[in-house]
Design goal:
Layout: E1 3-8, H1 15-24, E2 30-36, H2 47-65, E3 68-74, H3 78-85, E4 89-94, H4 97-113, E5 118-123, H5 133-141, H6 152-162
Parallel strand pairs: 1-2, 1-4, 2-3, 4-5
């Protein structure tokens, strides 16, 4: 069974994330979405809220593609998470050259830790290349329209969270 791990904080999950998830399902039999517990980033949504959003947003995709999609929170090293879930590959989305520079370093470190786990890069579709969760939150916080960047359900959850 080919198992891939797509890690991130997903705070919140965007259409860019969903694009990478959809395209990843063609590469693997099981896709594990690793939700990073990153206290340093200070996520807006709790871990439970992020997991719930991801499960809701990927349920239909799992049915459409026939690929098993599992959401797995993690707080350890990415390579250790890959071992924990049995992943042979780590899937990373790239939006711009700046993403590649950071990811290039990460691949080198992960390969030094375990060269048997490959990293696969998927370029974001052109219409999704500008989308970043951080920017989506800022636009929403300032009252802008985020409907081009997230699903209607995520948009509603983000608005509700920001009005509290």
């Amino acid at each position: 069974m080919r198992i891939g791990l797509y890690p991130g904080t997903f705070d919140p999950i965007t259409l860019g994330h969903l694009d990478i998830i959809r395209r990843s399902t063609t590469l693997v039999d099981r896709l594990v979405i690793g939700v990073a517990i990153n206290r340093d980033k200070g996520p807006l949504f709790t871990l439970e809220e992020r997991v719930t959003m991801i499960e809701a947003e990927t349920a239909r995709l799992q049915e459409e593609t026939g690929t098993e999609i599992v959401v797995h929170p993690f707080e350890n090293l990415l390579i250790d998470c890959a071992h924990d879930v049995g992943a042979q590959m780590i899937v990373r989305g790239l939006r711009a050259v700046a993403d590649f520079e950071y990811e290039f370093q990460m691949v080198g470190m992960n390969r030094a830790l375990d060269s048997s786990v490959e990293t696969v890069f998927l370029m974001a579709e052109a219409k999704h290349q500008a989308i970043a969760s951080k920017l989506v939150k800022e636009i929403a916080r300032l009252g802008g329209d985020i409907s081009k960047f997230v699903t209607p359900a995520v948009k509603e959850k983000l608005r509700a969270k920001l009005t509290k």
